[in-house]
Amino acid sequence: MKRHNPNLRHEDLPYRPCVGVMLINREGLVFVGRRIDQTVEGWQMPQGGIDNGETPEEAGLRELKEEIGTNKAVILREHPEWLAYDLPQHLLGIALHGRYRGQKQKWLAMRFTGDDADINIATPEPEFAAWKWLAIEALPRLIVPFKRDTYAKVIADFRDLAGPVD
Questions:
Q1: Which helix (H) or strand (E) holds 93?
Q2: The pTM is what?
C-alpha cells in the first residue's frame, strides 16, 4: 500500500487529462455512481482518462461503456473550458496512481438513449458499487468536497439540459 509523502507538493506533479460525463435520462435526472474504492461514501458522475490520440468525445463514450456497461448516449454539449481540481494533500502521491496532482477535465453533457436495463456497473474493472438517477440540484451534497467546485461549474453550464424530454 502506498504511503503519503508529506514532502510531495502539488506543483511537483502534472494534471491528468480526463473527461467527465453528465449523463441525463429522459426524465431529466443525472446518473451518479457510488465509488467502489473509497472509505467514505463518495458519489460521482462517470469520468476517466483521455488516451493518447483520443478526443474528449471518444473518451466520454468509451468511459461510459467501461464504467456503466453502455454507451447509449448522444452528446448534447461540451463545457467550454477545461476544469481542474487538485487532490487533497493526504491523497497526493497515492490517488490517481500517485502520478498526478489532480485532474484537468473536459466535461460533456450527454442524453441517455437507452433504458435502465442497459446499465450494468458489474463491468470487468468495476468502479461503482451502486448507482442512481438524481435531480441535478442534489449532486453537490453527495460529491466529495475536493470536487464540489468543479461540479458547481458543470451544473451551472448544463442545468438547462437537465429537464424532461418529450
A1: none
A2: 0.90
